[in-house]
UniProtKB/TrEMBL annotation:
Pfam families: 5_3_exonuc, 5_3_exonuc_N, DNA_pol_A, DNA_pol_A_exo1. It comes from Futiania mangrovi. It catalyses: DNA(n) + a 2'-deoxyribonucleoside 5'-triphosphate = DNA(n+1) + diphosphate. Its EC number is 2.7.7.7. This is DNA polymerase I.
Amino acid sequence: MTDKTPTGPGKGDHLYLIDGSGYIFRAYHALPPLTRKSDGLPVGAVHGFCAMLWKLLEETKGEDAPTHLAVIFDASGVSFRNEIYPAYKAQRPEPPEDLVPQFGLIRDATRAFGLPCVEMEGFEADDLIATYARQAADAGAKVTVISSDKDLMQLVREGVELMDPVKARRIGPEEVMEKFGVTPGKVIDVQALAGDSVDNVPGVPGIGVKTAAQLLDTYGDLETLLEKAEEIKQPKRRENLIAFADQARVSKLLVTLKDDVEVPEPLSDFAVRDPEAGPLVGFLKAMEFTTLTKRIAGKLDADAGEISATAEFAADPDAAVDEAPPVEAGAPGAAVAGQAAPIDTAAYQTVTDMETLDRWIARCFAAGVIAVDTETDSLDAASANLVGVSLATGVNQACYIPLAHRAGDGLDLDGNGDAPKQLDRAEVLERLRPLLADPATLKVGQNIKYDLLVLARHGVEVAPYDDTMLISYTLEAGAHGHGMDELSKLHLDHAPIPFKEIAGSGKSAKTFDLVPIADATRYAAEDADVTLRLWNVLKPRLLAERKVTVYETLERPMARVLAGMEREGVKVDVKVLNRLSNDFAKEMARLEEEIFALAGERFTIGSPKQLGEILFGKMGLVSAKKTATGQAATGADVLEELAAQGHDLPARVLDWRQVSKLKSTYTDALPTYINKETGRVHTSYSLAATTTGRLASSEPNLQNIPIRTDMGREIRTAFIAEPGNVLISADYSQIELRLLAHIADIPQLKTAFAHGLDIHALTASEMFGVPVEGMDPSVRRRAKAINFGIIYGISAFGLANQLHIPQEEARTYIARYFERFPGIRTYMDETKAFAREHGYVETIFGRRIHVRGIDQKQPSARAFAERAAINAPIQGAAADIIRRAMIRLPGELAAARLKARMLLQVHDELIFEVPEDEADKTAALVKRVMEGATLPARQLSVPLTVETGRGPNWDAAH
DNA sequence: GTGTGGCA
DNA sequence: TGCCACAC
């Protein structure tokens, strides 16, 4: 290998063009998986690529030795072909998880070899390869295209060959003939007819490669064939060729590679030079390719021991799996500040011109993994306007693109009196669109559901994505919160700029669009920078701690599913709410007068303090207990007790409280959440708020709409469907008890569920020795309360309160329960012991829930933690199951061509809005999917049953 | 057992 | 911030 004068390749030269993007997929599937030892980073394709490059440069001799070489990549998921046919390559699946980081690494490898990396927005790698191949072949040089992509076979001609990089097999005209049955010149026509389901090239129905070759053999070329289609004997084939002639022509446009692209770099730049030992060996060392490092260092006359691994690519030593044990959740040593440079907000860039934007977009494509954060003018994603976007590509490499900052309130945003200079939002989003949709670029967000929702409202999709909040939740639910500030302090030992500092707080707080752009850049770019740093710390731990499946099947897909549900929202009938609000107000006024009459004075009923003074001071009633603050308790249980003794005032107060609650929390508050644009209520689901895996709904909370009392249940009638539609609900019946029966392995309960028996009656029968037939309802009610208590980890205290019985009696019930179902006690003891030993428990799907305080000395505090530990695997498994159903449902509904939209989740229940004529079919499908949601991950030893209901208000059967 | 929210 | 009340 010698340095040559950098001229374009001519006679006697040999140009190698490597299809970098294609190589990754090919190598991923053909080569055994390989992960970096110290942190589990998948590097199989990178290793194959480096070995292949080295072999090409070093071991290929004679006329096959490359004189020129370049690696060509796909710039993004979108090309000029999408303008011809929008569905082109539209249904490609996302690349596998462990492949994504390798896209960026292969570009890094190419640069480490000192070789050119070429890509161009709007064109596929194949088009660039076609252009360079034609230029070189026209100049008389030999060309080898390293790819096994059949689409490139059309390039084969005199002097142009393909080579399969994995099999090292050369593909010339003969091999093309073997594959397509025609000479390379007619490959395009075959593809135009046969189509390609993977790339979504339509072709002509009923015609495959074999038939296409045969037809072209007879008619010569596509145009002639289409013109003479009438002559074809087979009726179906003839009709299709006539009917789909234009589709065949469009297909031909799609498969024809463009060989006259105005390429970004001239061929003369591709002249091969000796690689520099420093960067190359440094990169190989960082990848931990020991054998390859030795071999290459030896050939380059470099001492591998002298060159250190390139820090940028090296594994984070603190994330190592074989040297250090996994970091304890929340432990002080969990901070991983060591490796990366400290946060430098001065390094961030504000993007206000297109050239800079394009440079950042190119950097993002090259990086393979980027962090994205959107800034908006409100916290409510359903109505927030996009104010800016920040991107990060590496440590301290971050930018902010302001899009809708305003010079409000006469503020001088830039300090120079001008209105803030910024790019046009729509234009920027169009530029970002290919990047955000690029299957080879992983977009990392912190709580990315928010960004998905905001961007979706601007018509921009994001895929593939990762979410640092959800990774943290997967690893350490229950150990701590998962907000960015908390994670940053914990893992990066860095406190990000507080929002308050740039936007102010309280009354003078500004929305983000009024924040000066310099401040906005510091804040927003830091968020992206921190997010990417967190990803670097947290993502490898998923692999090391064997939580990749939990993250990928239970957490990550939920962000998109919930973004969709939140965007849909649910319609509420304001008239109904207003009417109820009036009714409740009248009822409250009536009760107030009654209460004041009974008390002999007017006071604030809602004040526990004033109420206490009236009840226990003025009226001289005896207070059963005190609150934590020493105040006499006026809780429902106390008032109920007093009411039962025949006192009217506490009974009326209880009534008042109920109505007051319904009015303030529901009928008055709900209308204020109606979105002006959609006319619907868009709740927000939190994926990382609970310890167990349940969701939490807020603003408004639609998971606690009343149902138990008649007055409360009326509120549900305000939730309605659009005309011609109905709401249907589907809820898991007794899911937690079924899971308890499975997990604790209770034969009687399992049999009862298998036979569809009344589980509470059976429990009562077992415990009290009475037959199920003709059972006293109060006996069944007691058993039901005990069953619930068991799920919650039961205490005699809790059960006694629930059933209004002495603790002693409750204690004997529990003892009897354990006697009849000994598996329960075993489950509880084993779960407590497991939690004490590990600090966490797990669901049958592998979700990990950390239990804090299990080793506290104080018995009551410890017992509380123990009950949480006992409940978590049950509640958590139920949460896992409904998540699995929710993730599958949108696809299943679409596949069945049903228009149903999933609107709400209430822990064990899903609510859909459905066209009236599809209600039955939808209910059946939803039931099937929900009941089957445990498989294939788990086979339960109890059946799951789902009950569906229909109507303006959802079901009351819990 | 797990949550959110209104009110004083 | 604590208390209370709504849901599963």
